[in-house]
Known about the structure:
Elements: H1 2-13, H2 22-28, H3 42-61, H4 64-67, E1 68-71, H5 103-106, H6 114-128, H7 138-153, E2 169-172, H8 186-198, E3 206-207, E4 227-228, H9 246-268, E5 270-274, E6 279-282, H10 285-292, H11 301-321, H12 323-327, H13 338-356, H14 372-392, H15 399-419, H16 422-426, H17 442-470
Parallel strand pairs: 3-4
Antiparallel strand pairs: 1-2, 5-6
Helix pairs in contact: 1-10, 2-17, 3-13, 3-17, 9-10, 9-11, 9-17, 11-13, 11-15, 11-17, 14-15, 15-17
Amino acid sequence: MKSFFILLALLLSSVHVTRAGSAAHRCFCQVTGTLDDCACDVETIDRFNNKEIFPKLQKLLATDYFRFYKVNLNNPCPFWTDHSQCGLKYCAVKPCTDGEIPEGLKSSSYKYSEAASQDIEECEKAEKLGAVNGSLSDETRQALQEWKKHDDESDRFCMLDDEDSPKSQYVDLLLNPERFTGYKGPEAWRIWNSIYEENCFKPYSVKRPLNPLASYSGERDDGKKLTSLFLIKGQGFYRWLEGLCVEKRAFFRLISGLHASINTHLSARYLLDENWFEMKWGHNVSEFQLRFDEELTKGEGPKRLRNLYFLYLIELRALAKILPYFERPTFHLYTGQRTQDNENKKLLLELLHVAKSFPLHFDETALFAGNNKEAMKLKEDFKLTFKNISRIMDCVECFKCRLWGKLQTQGLGTALKILFSERQIEAMPNTSNTNPSFQLSRQEIVSLFNAFGRISTSVRELENFRSLLSNLKQ
């Protein structure tokens, strides 16, 4: 570990420094002003998040409804057959014991409201009496079940785990925090390369190197020269993005922003010291610089941080639009603790009203707004591509990284589902005896808010890193 930090120190000291405070300048000089394809600026987001959103969101995520997340960490990788697993001790995830899970959650993963629990119990009784589906053939019943499954999945932008599977387990997110586990190198970059190379609408003639700090030159299989994404400083960031439509450009920026947010978390919760009686986790400024310094990343780092703010706007907009869904009197954050559940719903609605009050929301109507047929095809490509990315999370070998990768991709997928379901949300009934036109599973709800919690934390941590970098003696 010591040799690693010595190497980092030598690397960072080799960078030419012209004035005090330049470390902060190199990381954040471009992270200011208005964001591309938006009417909002970085400074407004910083103030709004750090003062209004972050404190309320952290309080909400500490409640039982949002801290317990049901996930299957044993799904096989659908894309390659490498069965190796991370052997690092910090990669492990500790699932909950039966006694640690609130009674209201244990009854069934989809019974997220008291009314839903009562309705399902009545249906189960009716089925035992033969009063439901008694006249249907096995073939017809199977067809209806398959259609319902298709109908549930058709509006989703990500794959969800089967919560009824015996392999799915509850995890306490507060006891399994996202932080640096030591998982890195070719195995980790294989995941991100698969995402960027195959699932970001990127031209195949543009190649992204395995090592983000290394230059790349080479040829494709057909002999044509590959173009490095790490363009010479001054020529612009990812020039090829300029030729994409706004939807595909937004898709890439969402993935880049998610990657930047995760890297911010890992740099902010880094294992700084370890001995037999304690472990010290904290901010690793050198690690942050390796990922975001303008010179060390050939101009890419600050752009990654701008994309993080773009991702923040997208998920914040989704929270503002989903307010009517949670305002219904029939919806409860059901854990079986009535008083606490009622208080938590008030806290949730307060947070959503604050989110709605943001003055410079992203305008999602600019997406998929062209020719109707072409827009529908593009939207479907958008869904399929993001679903593919959510499946790649099952290939992450570090279980702690897999847990948070799955949660954050599911949360972003749920945010996209909300943004493009405005009519269904507006058409929702306020009574429980009518099938709603829009529905969220508990897994979607928990991932939505925890994913936004991760991005909100990243924005808050950027303020800390600005301060730390400004105080560096160089």
